[in-house]
């Protein structure tokens, strides 16, 4: 757990309340000294101005800090939601391709693990099969997908996800220079 992982919304609210309480105590002490002292005990004007300046800074810091924290937490939640949406979209694209290629359930598993970056031996261990079986299934996947290996297989999915996001002139250039196997499989 990193240092920032422990900063849950509840803990941050507690820190904010402690900070606000400290500001309140400081302000109360300042105003007590300013307004409840006898004439002979009046603090020098420079000290009064300094205390008011510090109090103003503390109040602004607390309010702006809380506002920035709330915005940051909102953005983090939004980013998390977008990441989940992107992950779901990637899974949908994969399922669509696997169906188009008519992959068996075993081949779909191998393809998924391969796209996640696992080695042949790791896939074999996870699936309880031999490395030779995984290699044969990988070759069948590549043949059905019309690619020569794992990097091209991965590029099919990345291409599907980013193709709509490219600016017009770059998209046209990318489509005109794409290998024929990629455009026929992903098209």
Could you characterize what this model shows?
The chain has 187 residues and is an all-alpha fold. The protein folds into two domains: 9-80; 83-186, Arc Repressor Mutant, subunit A (Orthogonal Bundle). 79% of the residues lie in helices and 0% in strands. The protein is built from eight helices and no strands. The chain has helices spanning 9-35, 45-100, 105-115, 120-127, 131-145, 150-162, 168-177, 180-186. Helix 3 crosses helix 5 (131-145) and helix 4 packs across helix 5. It starts with 8 loop residues before the first helix and ends with a helix. Residues 180-187 have low confidence and may be disordered. InterPro entries: Sig_transdc_resp-reg_C-effctor, Tscrpt_reg_LuxR_C, WH-like_DNA-bd_sf. It comes from Rhodalgimonas zhirmunskyi. Pfam families: GerE (PF00196). Residues 69-96 form a coiled coil. The chain crosses the membrane at residues 12-28, 48-69.
In sequence order, what are the helices and strands, one letter per element? HHHHHHHH
Q: Pairing-aware structural class of the strands and helices?
A: mainly alpha
The CATH class assignment of the largest domain is Mainly Alpha
Using DSSP, what is the number of strands? 0
Mean pLDDT: 80
Label the overall shape.
rod-shaped
Number of helices: 8
CATH topology of the largest domain: Arc Repressor Mutant, subunit A
**Unreliable parts:** 180-187
Question: How would a crystallographer describe the biggest sheet?
Answer: none
| Radius of gyration based on Cα positions | 31 Å
Beta-strand level of the residues, as a percent range?
under 5%
Distance between the termini: 44 Å
Coiled coil: 69-96
Protein name: Helix-turn-helix transcriptional regulator
Keywords: Coiled coil, Membrane, Transmembrane, Transmembrane helix
Transmembrane segments: 12-28, 48-69
């Amino acid at each position: 757990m990193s240092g920032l992982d422990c900063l849950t919304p509840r803990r941050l609210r507690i820190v904010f309340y402690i900070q606000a309480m400290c500001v309140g105590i400081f302000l109360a002490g300042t105003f007590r000294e300013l307004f409840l002292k006898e004439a002979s005990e009046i603090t020098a004007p420079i000290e009064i101005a300094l205390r008011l300046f510090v109090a103003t800074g503390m109040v602004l810091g607390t309010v702006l800090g809380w506002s920035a924290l709330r915005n940051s937490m909102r953005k983090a939640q939004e980013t998390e939601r977008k990441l989940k949406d992107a992950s779901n979209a990637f899974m949908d694209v994969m399922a669509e391709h696997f169906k188009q290629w008519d992959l068996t359930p075993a081949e779909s598993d191998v393809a998924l693990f391969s796209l996640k970056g696992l080695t042949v031996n790791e896939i074999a261990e996870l699936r309880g099969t031999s490395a030779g079986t995984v290699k044969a299934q990988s070759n069948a996947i590549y043949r059905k997908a019309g690619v020569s290996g794992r990097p091209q297989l991965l590029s099919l999915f990345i291409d599907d996800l980013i193709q709509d996001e490219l600016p017009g002139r770059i998209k046209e250039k990318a489509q005109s220079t794409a290998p024929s196997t990629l455009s026929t499989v992903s098209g």
